[in-house]
Amino acid sequence: MFPFFRKKSSTLTARKRDVPDGLWTKCPSCSELVYRKQMHRDHGICAKCGFHFPIGAAERIEMLLENKSFEEWDAGLESVDSLEFTGTSSYVSKLESNMKKTGRKDAVICGRGRIGEHAVALAVMDFDFLAASMGAVVGEKITRLIERATAERLPVVIVCASGGARMYEGLFSLMQMAKTSGALARHAAAGLPYIPVLTHPTTAGVMASFATLGDVIVAEPDALIGFAGPRVIKETTQQDLPDGFQKSEFLLKHGLLDMVVNRKELKSTLIQLLDYFRPHRQGEAKAS
Amino acid sequence: MYALLFEKPIVELEKKLEELRHVSADQALDVSGEIERIQKKIEQSRREIYENLTPWQKVQVSRHPMRPYPLDHIRRMTTGFLELHGDRDYADDRAIIGGFAMLDGRSVMIIGTQKGRDTKSNLECNFGCPYPEGYRKALRLMKLAAKFKMPIITLVDTPGAFPGIESEERHIAEAIAVNLREMFTLPVPFISVITGEGGSGGALGMAVCNRLLIMEHAYYSVISPEGCAAILWKDRAYANQAADALRLTAKDLIQFKLADEVVPEPVGGAHTNYDAAAEALKQKILKHLAALDKLSPQQLLEDRYRKFRAMGPFKEPEPESRRRFRRKKS
Ligand SMILES: [Zn+2]
């Protein structure tokens, strides 16, 4: 878990904090005042410059899935303070305040739904909940999602965002990286497709596990995507970071991503990909 | 010799012993009784100190500049170590070494992270922090072992994967993730040992195994105590408190069922006796290898999956269906 997204000066926090109040909000990229209702209709994209504001997990599900097709799985799972973490503030109180803030028990929503005509197992990470850090609940819910998708022969789509592993759960949180990756190994062996969608920011432990194990890896524009935080890298290496370092476009150029997709086209792109992955399409091609 | 801060009482006794020896040599006095007494005291002091190390002190022992590194253990535990190089893609990362070796009469693939002892060797192996090509080399060697049905043994002692520009440009996260996934598919016995520092994803990227062992004074953590302190206390100086909070010692990991067994170290730490440390390590590895030999390839995969599948406690309300069933029954 890295602190870089907490820095007051960074646009990341600025984005988040400016959105909730008032009818209008200022675009951190072009400084245009954006009417919030309009922005909501535009899926959180600035009409003037195309800047992607972070959007909530519920909004994301609404945007991607067919109306009323979502069936949530494992919503009741709750984190426990297994380490009895003794830090500056207790883990239990952190969990409580984040539950209150988001109305959810932890940092990921999982379930089944339809994207176009495709039934999928979908997970959406909720950055508002403790920076969508991965503890035992996130790891377990994602693992169950993948296992169930394997059993029911469903494609998996995971909309990723994360500050990394959840420090308060110590080594348990690290082990979720292995757990989720193991489930993906079985899903892959069953010949089923997996598409992670990397949104701003996807980093550290999530990045070094299920976020980068896709058959096709999709990212939103201008998202911060990386293993180590930029500040850690700067401090360790004493080097200046290149322009656009760890941004989607940088990673596309360096060969990690299959595509960077504007949020407006995300759903249609996923449908197109799922069409290509459909088993009977291969059958049809052979038959004709 | 390099001494840690909390070893000061030992160092002082050793100084006294040295002086006494000088005196006896210079003045031909018989102080053998006194020498013996101090030697006993040193032994006792060392035992007391090392039996009561705090988590943060253990972290320091695990980072001791004279701590035996994986190659030191490999040279003592095995014969005929034949190192293999390179990831067949970009480079040969010197922070990860590996190759064939004979362990108690059988061939194994043994892979370890590697730190240096001086500036030159540390520059070469990047202070034990692997680049992506290190993880890709490790996976190549693991797959080679699986092809020829050899057990895989990994020895881990790394502060973590290297956080640098080139690491990101060559996708360190993806290299680790692919290792995590692929290690679940290798149908041979797989034993990992945290021999020193178990630094987060950089350590896990070599350790999806059937049996996880940890040396007595090693640690394994999701984040370094300094990193944790910098985030929570906004000051790296609180590493001591962070080390307590993270529950990163061998004892903690056994309690949480995250590690299978602790490998005892010689009194005073592995750095005081390389041969004894390597021998203890070898015996534990052989013991677990013998147990894993009884499993079929399919059972080995299932065992590994179940092992990690069970990690991570959480609360779950009773499913609705079961509750209804119970109501009907009563
Ligand atoms: Zn704008």
Give an account of the 3D structure.
The complex is a heterodimer of chains A (288) and B (330). Chain A is an alpha/beta fold. Chain A contains eleven helices and eleven strands. In chain A, strand 7, helix 6 and strand 8 form a beta-alpha-beta unit. In chain A, helix 5 runs parallel beside helix 6. Chain B has one domain: 2-enoyl-CoA Hydratase, Chain A, domain 1 (Alpha-Beta Complex), CATH 3.90.226. In chain B, 48% of the residues are buried. Chains A and B meet through strand 4, helix 5, helix 6, helix 7 and helix 8 of A and helix 7, helix 8, helix 9, helix 10 and helix 11 of B. Bound molecules: zinc ion.
What would the keywords be for this entry?
heterodimer; A: 288 residues; 2-enoyl-CoA Hydratase, Chain A, domain 1; 2 domains; eight-stranded mixed β-sheet; two-stranded antiparallel sheet; 17% strand; disordered N terminus; B: 330 residues; alpha/beta; 9 strands; binds zinc ion
- Note poorly predicted spans of chain A: 1-19
Percent helix of chain B: 40-55%
Q: Please state the second-level CATH architecture of chain B.
A: Alpha-Beta Complex
Mean pLDDT of chain A: 90
Can you tell me the CATH class of chain B? Alpha Beta
Overall tally of structural domains of chain A: 2
- CATH-assigned homologous superfamily of the largest domain in chain A: 2-enoyl-CoA Hydratase, Chain A, domain 1
